[in-house]
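Journal club prep — side note

Before the paper discussion, L.F. wants everyone to see what a predicted structure for a comparable chain looks like in token form. Sequence:
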Amino acid sequence: MPQKNQIVELIISDMTHEGSGIGHLDGMAVFVPGSAVGDRLRVRLVKVNKTHCYGRIEQVATPSSDRIKPDCPVSQRCGGCVFRHISYAAELRYKQAFVQSNLQRIGGISIDLEPIEASPLESGYRNKAQYPVRMQKGRLAAGFFAPRTHEVVDCHHCKLQPAFFGGLLEAVLGYLTEFRVPVYDETTGKGLFRHLYLRYGQRTEEVMVCLVVNGRALPEEQTLVQILLKVCPQVVSVVLNTNDRNTNVILGPYTRTLYGKPQISDLLCGVRFDLSPHAFYQVNALGAERLYQIAAEYAGLTGRETVLDFYCGAGTIGLSMAHLCREVIGVEIVPQAVENARENARKNEIDNARFFCADASDAALRLNQEGIRPDVVLLDPPRKGCAQDVLHTVAEMCPERIVYISCNSATLSRDLALLETLGYQTVRGRPVDLFPRTNHVETIVLLQRENS
């Protein structure tokens, strides 16, 4: 039986979905973060269970051909970029294999996936950052929470963010120091400044600075505004968000504009969207454009179709396709998102899209009463996937095609297995990488109604 702190030699032969390499010791799996398939390693066992172990690299004896020198000093600590130590080509190959494996193993889906779509940008692609600011070891720390903790990994210049985000963060830290603004303490609930939240419109180049505080005001607010404008002239919105609750949720319900507009705008697939602090928007807008283009291709739109967009959010996917179909009907259970979708349609003068607030069953009843049967249904649920009643409701509507977009190929595979029992066949699929260097990947699939 292996022992904790024992040093063993391993060859990494596979990779987990979380980005850890897998080696084997006397038939027992050993999971090693920061490793690559083909590595020959000396590994210290840090945790030993009955069926598997966890290890830490002590020495890379023979590196894999996939291995590159990590270019971020904190990537192993922050837990975000699990693939920072391998080439992007290797990362794409791993992600393709992950999704293919889940489809077969979990869903029993045997299609061959189309080649993964790479992100247009490997670095600097994120248009949003939320930096917790805390006092640690007697000094201000700002960056990202370490995995499964609330310890802040101090990181001002993350390679996933635009370079100027770091300048804005350091400007805010300088202001907090100069004006002796107390930062929030989670254990006591005291302190004023909680988070710095940045948004960026990659097409419009507009920047929002959202200051999240445990109160209603900051000292010398207009002085801070001038500091931010000097550091980044692209800032068109500075807002103060109040979150005075003892919660892990970052934003509170009350927001006040300190400078410029209460939101920024961006263009996605030629459609302009307004982005408030609370609005959902894909963090990789350039990659999302390609994702939505593939979705439109899978939908097979000819201009005559009625498209039903479940989980429509602010309407980004449906509105990007409105010019290709007869009508878009968006359904969302969050009232504010529905209002945002309606406003986005109005501002873009899109008159063949409508949105209403309902769950799947109520939406199906309403459409049935109107005598409407969708030709195409779009599904883009959260990571937990679709509830079974949603899938049954969609199948009862008998659309010719279902286009399913998922950020979790495991729950996607589960849902595809159910849809195949309800008369649909999975005919196409493709991973789309919106999150380079992380273990996340989007997947899009097309299902067709059998005997159609």
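L.F.'s comment for the group: The mean pLDDT is 95. Keep this in mind when we get to the figures.
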